[in-house]
Amino acid sequence: MADLDANPETSMPRVVLVEDDVDLRELLAHCLSSQGLAVSTAGSALELYRQIAKEPADIVILDIGLPDQDGYAIASFLRANTNMGLIILTARSRVDDRLKGFTSGADLYFVKPVDCRELAIAATNLARRLNTAPEVADTQGHAAPPSSEPWVLDSARWSVHSPRGLPVRLTAKEFDLVVALTQEPGRAVDRTVLLETLDYANTVQGSRGLDALVSRLRRKIEAAVGEAFPIQTVHAKGYLFSAPIKQL
Q1: Cβ–Cβ contacts within 10 Å for residue 172, how many?
Q2: Nearest-CA neighbor of 59 among 132, 6, 115, 124?
Q3: Architecture category of domain 14-130 in CATH
Q4: Which of 80, 108, 157, 221 is 20 to 30 A distant from 145 in Cα terms?
């Protein structure tokens, strides 16, 4: 797996290109990188899972015909367990294939051969739509300091509110995670309990899905409200919510 942009600017959409054809992968990755995207690559589902477990991307560009797992299954997993944008890139052009792609969770569907400039613009626009929440900062451009007020979990609206009252809408998985962690704030919840609660398999892949969900949620909320969301990792145990929270 090659990282083609060793020093990406923070404003660059981060893309994982998943393609098992080495020549096509390198060609597309080089072109997308030249169009202003921070591109890393994977040649299999396993490489993709390893990569996003370490650091979720903004967009996954996914080939369907991979050697180790069906691309539609990967798409369904990504849609159920992450908030990353998903573009399917495949040689399959039938309407039924397109419908299956969108049903599996794809945001966009491109048929090979593709002009990488068009693909780059589509990825950039998709990343922009997925990251429209404004950052809240003080007059010096830094994140605001923590507040003494509690966080608020609004069950009716599936949202969490920062101590300053800024709301962030949650997906179903995100909401279930926050509920599980906030039953007893300050007490670690075992990883196996979280896996079962969130309907993840108790496997390496399921554990990676949980870690990716936590990482993405932290980034999403911090970007939206300007302060860190207090989910803490407890080594060899699981996660805990380390701040006061009120549930509505």
Answers
A1: 10
A2: 124
A3: 3-Layer(aba) Sandwich (3.40)
A4: 157
The CA distances from residue 106 to 4, 119, 204, 207, in Å, are 24, 14, 24, 23
pTM: 0.53
CATH of domain 151-247: 1.10.10.10
Tens-digit pLDDT profile for residues 216-235: 888 888 888 888 888 888 87
Cα dihedral 201→202→208→212 (10° resolution): 60
Structure tokens at 79: 């849609």
- The pLDDT tens digits for 11-33 are 688 999 999 999 999 999 999 99
pLDDT in tens, 84-138: 899 999 999 999 999 999 888 898 999 999 999 999 999 999 888 876 533 333 3
